[in-house]
Specification:
single chain; 70 residues; alpha+beta; elongated
């Protein structure tokens, strides 16, 4: 078993979270074969339009050593 890394009480961790949001209005056009297969498998007609939304989350972690003499 490896020894644990000593804890530095003067070390700070900063983190940033970036949210990027995307949205699109989509018009759906399917051929007859695909429409029939979707109707058969879901028992519903496919939508003619839909809104697609996506939220992308990314993080950045920065470590720094605080200088107590300044």
């Amino acid at each position: 078993m490896l020894p644990k890394k000593p804890i530095n009480l003067f070390e700070a961790t900063l983190s940033n979270i970036v949210l990027t949001m995307f949205a699109a209005n989509v018009e759906v056009r399917l051929d007859n074969k695909m429409t029939r297969e979707l109707l058969r498998s879901t028992l519903k007609k496919p939508p003619s339009r839909l809104r697609y939304e996506l939220i992308y989350v990314s993080t950045t972690v920065i470590q720094c050593i605080l200088n107590i003499n300044s």
